[in-house]
């Protein structure tokens, strides 16, 4: 079950992406990240509608041409690959965050809201006790 992309996925994290399912229905997703794994690219998207709302879905990106236009098709990954890619996404987030607080929206610009006294993102800033 591949889904055709209606918007480019080269968007900043947090952007809304509209995909068309196999029945021609538009479904909204939150773009989370694009991962590279074994010379292939995968998009991580969070469903914003329906019974799969708030579920992180991971799709392999496959490009093709049709009538002189370039398109991308998204194919869901199997459970085994999903686990590998999900772990990679978590590790990537941890590397980018440098905080350890794992709070949603943490920017770690020295103004961390986490309650960790020795938080590494604070660069000398100590939390009030």
Number of alpha- plus pi-helical segments: 1
Order of helices and strands: EEEEEEH
Strands in their spatial order, largest beta sheet: 1-2-3-4-5-6
Structural class: alpha+beta
The unreliable regions are 1-10, 122-129
On the 0-100 scale, what is the average pLDDT? 76
Assembly state of the chains shown: single chain
Beta-strand level of the residues, as a percent range?
Answer: 35-45%
Q: How is the main sheet built? A: 6 strands, antiparallel, barrel
Residues in helix, %: 10-25%
Outline the structure in words:
The chain has 129 residues and is of the alpha+beta class. It has 2 domains: 3-97, no CATH class; 100-129, no CATH class. It contains 1 helix and 6 strands, in the order ββββββα. Strands 1-2-3-4-5-6 form a 6-stranded antiparallel barrel. Mean pLDDT is 76; it is low at 1-10 and 122-129.
């Amino acid at each position: 079950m591949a889904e055709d992309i209606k918007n480019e996925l080269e968007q900043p994290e947090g952007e809304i992406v509209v995909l068309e399912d196999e029945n021609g229905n538009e479904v909204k997703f939150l773009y989370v990240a694009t991962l590279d794994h074994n010379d292939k690219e995968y998009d991580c998207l969070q469903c914003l509608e329906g019974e799969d709302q708030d579920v992180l879905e991971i799709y392999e990106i496959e490009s093709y041409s049709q009538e002189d236009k370039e398109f991308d098709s998204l194919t869901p990954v199997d459970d085994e690959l999903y686990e590998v890619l999900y772990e990679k996404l978590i590790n990537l987030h941890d590397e980018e965050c440098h905080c350890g607080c794992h709070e949603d929206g943490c920017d770690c610009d020295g103004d961390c809201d986490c309650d960790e006294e020795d938080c590494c993102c604070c660069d000398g800033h100590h939390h009030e006790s």
